[in-house]
Write a structure and sequence with these properties.
single chain, about 325 residues, alpha/beta, D-Maltodextrin-Binding Protein, domain 2, 12 helices
Length: about 325
């Protein structure tokens, strides 16, 4: 074979090699991209904006444990308390929207805070994207056991005739216990004196000791004292009666105000988190919420398990943010 023929064969070979390499190159980017987007590739932080031991923490640790097992990656709970729930919530709002920093969101930090703080550093609807809600808890209005009033209607009637003489406890200014009670008294048109404490434990000490008259607390915690006979239950805050107190009427049933509140808890991500990451998180949280052992854990803790669609979740969150912002502002309640 002469030199010209050899050169021609070499040129043809190089051309086919080039075509083959180009085909391989075209196939590689999607594979590499899929590998780089295989979420999660590192531990995920789940920020709980309150100290360990409360409702936020219980929900956060249960969800983190189950999500981690399903996704094969560590979901690490990070308690970030401070200024009520502001510090931790704002930290997530300002974190990178990459799916590696998530928030335990609730009525208190997302629906109540917009009305409580004049200069809230985050926007509950614009700065967060809901992954899903997992559980809700109602509140129970309890009274010292020797209070000579046996229903919410009795309380309102007495308060109307005796402004400021009754007292109600809370776990602090701006807490769920404070806001729910203050809005109720506002809607009922009565004056009952607020006595804020540093946490629910101190409030219970004075309620049981007869030094304060009333206290709206989460139903699971209130149930312990009601069952022990140290306090008595007058009303529950949910739209329906609580299975833990089936004989106790709702606020609406009492006829004193058209009001209901359940404190939901769930997972939220910073806004602009990639859609594919949100889809993965939502799919996995839906599985977690549907798991019988998770639902049993929530029920045993006095909660109502939730398994809502994305549209239902968005509607509930948006509705509660708008409704409670107005209710809190109309009642003139401030956390500061």
């Amino acid at each position: 074979m002469n030199k010209a023929a050899i050169a021609n064969v070499q040129a043809i070979s190089l051309r086919w090699i080039g075509v083959a390499l180009a085909a391989i190159a075209m196939a590689l980017p999607p594979i590499c991209q899929a590998q780089s987007n295989a979420y999660p590739t590192k531990p995920v932080r789940v920020v709980v904006p309150q100290p360990p031991g409360g409702g936020f923490d219980f929900v956060g640790r249960l969800l983190a444990d189950r999500m981690g097992k399903q996704l094969g990656q560590n979901f690490i709970v990070e308690n970030r308390p401070g200024s009520g729930t502001l510090i931790g919530t704002d930290a997530v709002a300002k974190s990178a929207p990459d799916g590696y920093t998530l928030l335990i969101g609730s009525v208190s930090n997302l629906a109540l805070n917009p009305g409580l703080y004049r200069n809230l550093p985050y926007d509950s609807l614009k700065d967060f994207e809901p992954i899903g809600l997992s559980v809700s808890y109602s509140y129970t209005l309890i009274a010292r056991k020797d209070l000579p009033l046996n229903s919410l209607a009795d309380v309102v009637a007495y308060a109307r005739a005796n402004p400021g003489k009754l007292t109600y406890a809370s776990a602090g200014n701006g807490s769920g216990q404070h806001v729910l009670a203050a809005v109720l008294w506002h809607l009922a048109g009565v004056e009952i004196t607020h006595v804020p404490y540093r946490g629910a434990q101190a409030a219970y000490q004075d309620l049981i000791g007869g030094r304060v008259d009333l206290f709206f607390d989460l139903a699971p915690t209130a149930r312990v004292q009601v069952d022990a006979g140290t306090v008595k239950a007058l009303a529950v805050s949910g739209a329906a009666r609580n299975t833990m107190h089936p004989s106790v009427p709702t606020i609406k049933e009492s006829g004193v105000a058209d009001l209901d509140l359940e404190s939901w808890f769930g997972l939220f991500a910073p806004a602009k988190t990639p859609p594919e990451v949100m889809d993965r998180l939502r799919a996995e949280l839906t599985k977690v919420n549907a798991a019988p052992d998770v639902q049993d854990a929530f029920r045993k803790a006095g909660g109502r398990p939730l398994n809502l669609s994305d549209a239902q979740t968005r509607a509930l969150v948006r509705g509660d943010v708008q409704r409670w912002t107005k209710l809190v502002q109309d009642a003139g309640i401030k956390a500061e």
